[in-house]
User: What shape does this take?
Amino acid sequence: MRARRALIAVGALAVLGSLWLVWYGLAPDVVAQSGESIELSLEDDEAYTAWRLFTLVDLALAALSVALIVVTTRPAAVWAWRLLATATLALVAFRMVEPPEGLEPSWGALLALAGGLLAAILAWLPRSDATR
Assistant: This one.
């Protein structure tokens, strides 16, 4: 049970940490339509982090991640793990399916998705008799 709670917290930490990483890059069709080669500099990449692109989604993901980390310290709060992990995963998946126009998900968004999946899958696994 402790390992499960720890891994859920690791998933939440991955989502939280991903907010500072590059979530989006230019979509190839946008680059092709422009007719010229576009190279992004480090300053341009920073503009595509979750903190820079989102207004409320970044704050919601941060709050959900911190809350999920906090509730994993309470073994009896399985319902809260499930609620928070599912909400986190749904929000990350939504931002991947509906990226800002002209952008496509990058490795920061993929890390958030992996962390959200890890937390949600482990939160929804049934408890075995050995872990009660």
User: Anything to note?
Assistant: The mean pLDDT is 85. The chain has one domain: 2-126. Residues 2-126 form one domain. The beta strands are 24-26, 103-105.
